[in-house]
């Protein structure tokens, strides 16, 4: 079985400041990793994913995440946040083989302060 | 871009009543899922559906729950006799993937907020 730990339930940060949202996972098999974002009153949207290859993946809106196999982490970072980044962010894992379900972390609420 | 659509966006029902939550997955997707999110808690897997049958379900998905793909486009979740603790946001998701590959991300709908009173 897989598990995902997001240590920070809420992260307040000032606009234009950098932010890191932490994600650690546990799995006995190789996994694919995802970050989903949920804006207020909306569903979950895929932000970025790591499948293979370069361990640094980027989204179109300036977020990036780095897969670290030795530390079993997939932290999400942005060098300068905007008000519009206020949302809840979910880290997720799925085994790389088979048809198994996606397992989500509990989520981190990012609150950008003007 | 194709979307997963869910209806209704909000449903209020009395305890003991049956509810059906509706979803239209993306048309060429093969795998369908229901997840739920109780307020303030994590997104929890309920059930996955492939090739017209349940492929996996969680311990939450007991006999009160059922899923159906009644036609080529809809995917429904039925709760036979709702309980207060069923109050949650229910998300439908679909995924396009070929056999043996698990790397396609889930595409989620906007959710149905179910309130049981």
Determine the structural class of chain A based on helices, strands and strand pairing: mainly beta
Uncertain regions of chain B: pLDDT < 50 for 5+ in a row? none
Q: Describe the main β-sheet of chain A briefly.
A: 6 strands, mixed
**How many domain modules of chain B?**
1
What is the radius of gyration of chain B? 14 Å
Count of DSSP H/I helices of chain A: 0
CATH class of chain B: Mainly Beta
The H-level CATH homologous superfamily of chain A, spelled out, is Immunoglobulins
Question: What structural class should be given to the helix and strand makeup of chain B?
Answer: mainly beta
Instruction: Quote the average pLDDT of chain B.
Output: 90
What are the low-pLDDT stretches of chain A, counting only 5+ consecutive residues below 50? none
Overall morphology of chain B: globular
Order of helices and strands of chain B: EEEEEEEEEEE
Strand content of chain A: over 45%
**End-to-end distance of chain A:** 41 Å
> What is the ordering of alpha helices and beta strands of chain A?
EEEEEEEEEEEE
Looking at how many chains there are and whether they match, the oligomeric state comes to heterodimer
Q: Based on CA inertia axes, which overall geometry of chain A fits?
A: globular
Mean pLDDT of chain A: 90
Named at the architecture level, the CATH assignment of chain A is Sandwich
Q: What is the number of strand segments of chain B? A: 11
Would you give an account of this structure?
The complex is a heterodimer of chains A (114) and B (117). With 114 residues, chain A is an all-beta fold. Chain A has one domain: Sandwich (Immunoglobulin-like). Helix content of chain A is 0%, strand content 53%. In chain A, strands 2, 5, 6, 10, 11 and 12 form a 6-stranded mixed beta sheet that branches. In chain A, strand 5 and strand 6 form a beta hairpin. Chain B is an all-beta fold. Chain B has one domain (5-97, 106-116): Immunoglobulins (Immunoglobulin-like), CATH 2.60.40.10. Helices cover 0% and strands 49% of the residues of chain B. Chain B is built from no helices and 11 strands. In chain B, the strands form 2 sheets. In chain B, strands 2, 4, 5, 6, 9, 10 and 11 form a 7-stranded mixed beta sheet that branches. Chain B is globular, with a radius of gyration of 14 Å. The interface between A and B is medium-sized, with 25 and 28 residues.
């Amino acid at each position: 079985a897989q598990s995902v730990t997001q240590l920070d339930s809420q992260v307040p940060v000032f606009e234009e400041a950098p932010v890191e949202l932490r994600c650690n996972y546990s799995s006995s098999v190789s996994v694919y990793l995802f970050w989903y974002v949920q804006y207020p009153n909306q569903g979950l949207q895929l932000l970025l994913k790591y499948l293979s290859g370069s361990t640094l993946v980027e989204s179109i809106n300036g977020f990036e995440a780095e897969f670290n196999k030795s530390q079993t982490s997939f932290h999400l970072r942005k060098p300068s946040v905007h008000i519009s980044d206020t949302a809840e962010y979910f880290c997720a894992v799925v085994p790389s083989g088979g048809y198994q379900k996606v397992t989500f972390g509990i989520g981190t609420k990012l609150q950008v302060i003007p | 871009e194709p979307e997963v659509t869910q209806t209704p966006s909000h449903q209020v029902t009395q305890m003991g009543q049956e509810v059906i939550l509706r979803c239209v997955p993306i048309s060429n997707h093969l795998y369908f899922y229901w997840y739920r999110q109780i307020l303030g808690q994590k997104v929890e897997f309920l059930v996955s559906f492939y090739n017209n049958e349940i492929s996996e379900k969680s311990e939450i998905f007991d006999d009160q729950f059922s899923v159906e793909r009644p036609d080529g486009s809809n995917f429904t979740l039925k709760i036979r006799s709702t309980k207060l603790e069923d109050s949650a946001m229910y998300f439908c998701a679909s995924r396009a993937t070929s056999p043996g590959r698990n790397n396609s991300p889930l595409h989620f709908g906007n959710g149905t907020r179910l309130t049981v009173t």
